[in-house]
Structures are given as C-alpha cells and as structure tokens.
Amino acid sequence: MVIAALRKLLPSYFPAEWTELFAIEQGLLLAQEMDLPQIMLESDALSAILAINSSNFEGEAGHLVEGILQSKALFSCCSFSYLKRDYNMVAHKLVQFAKSNLCSHVWKGVTPPFVSHLIVSDLELCAGGSLL
Q1: In this structure, is residue 74 part of a structural domain?
Q2: C-alpha span between 18 and 3 (Å, rounded)
Q3: Residue 44's domain spans which residues?
Q4: If pLDDT is split at 50, 70 and 90, which confidence band does 72 have?
Q5: Alpha-carbon distance 64 to 107, whole Å?
Q6: Which residues form the RNase H type-1 domain (predicted)?
Q7: Distance in angstroms (rounded) separating the CA atoms of residues 107 and 39
C-alpha cells in the first residue's frame, strides 16, 4: 500500500549527494505533515545513508545531515537504509518524471499511475526472497 509519494523539482543543480539528502529531508517533512509516527526511508545513495547513520556532520553537506537527524527525533521510530537502485525503481521513475515535467507533485493515499507496475514488481521481488 502506498501511503504517499512526492516528486519535487529543485530550483538549481546540486551535487548528487546533496540531491539525495534533499530527497530524504523532503520525505521526512512529508511524513511529519501526515503525522506518521514510524517511518523507514530507503535510498540508493550509500554515501548519504552512511553520513546520516554515522551522524557525520563534516563536509559541505553536514548541515543537511544535521537537519535530517533533528527531524528524525520527531518520530517514535525512524530508520534510514541503503537499497540498491535495482530495488528502488519507483524512486528512480519519480525522479525521471519530475525532470521531464518540470514540476512538483504530492500523492497522498494514492499511487502515482506511472509507477503502479513498478510497485507490483518490487512486491514480487520481496515475496520471492530476492531482495537482500
């Protein structure tokens, strides 16, 4: 079941790690807005997930990591995990759609129609035990 999905066009170009951290931050903000007490965020950006999980505030993106960790404290349970891109095609498709449409959009309680088939594929992968 999809609870919410978000695609957001950024106002400029940023390094890949920053973009991933912005996406995680926006996911947290959406979850807060929806009053979700427990969330699990997945990303195919290993460096971003490692920075968050190790509370690494060093470097140019340290302020983004710090903000994410402050937002994390508002949830009763909040985890961040790395997921290979092959198993995160829904997020990839949302990014591609945002790039081609030059707009932001939020879906609450409904599945974006252009990713429905990918969600079914992801569920089949999980049920088959192929997801590690």
Answers
A1: yes
A2: 25
A3: 4-127
A4: very high
A5: 25
A6: 10-98
A7: 17
Q: Using CA atoms, how far apart are residues 30 and 101, in angstroms rounded to an integer?
A: 21
In a domain, 132, yes or no: no
Instruction: Give the pTM.
Output: 0.77
Tell me: pLDDT of 88 over 70. Answer: yes
Pairwise CA distance, residues 114 & 107, whole Å: 12
d(CA 104, CA 55): 29
4: β partners: 108
The CATH number of residue 53's host domain is 3.30.420
**Cα angle vertex 50, ends 49, 54, to 5°?**
120
Indicate whether 79 belongs to any domain. yes
* Bridge partners of residue 108, in order along the sequence: 4
Inter-CA distances, 103 with 6, 10, 46, 98, 106, Å: 11, 9, 27, 6, 10
Rounded Cα distance, 110 and 121, in Å: 17
Over 90: is that where the pLDDT of 37 sits?
yes
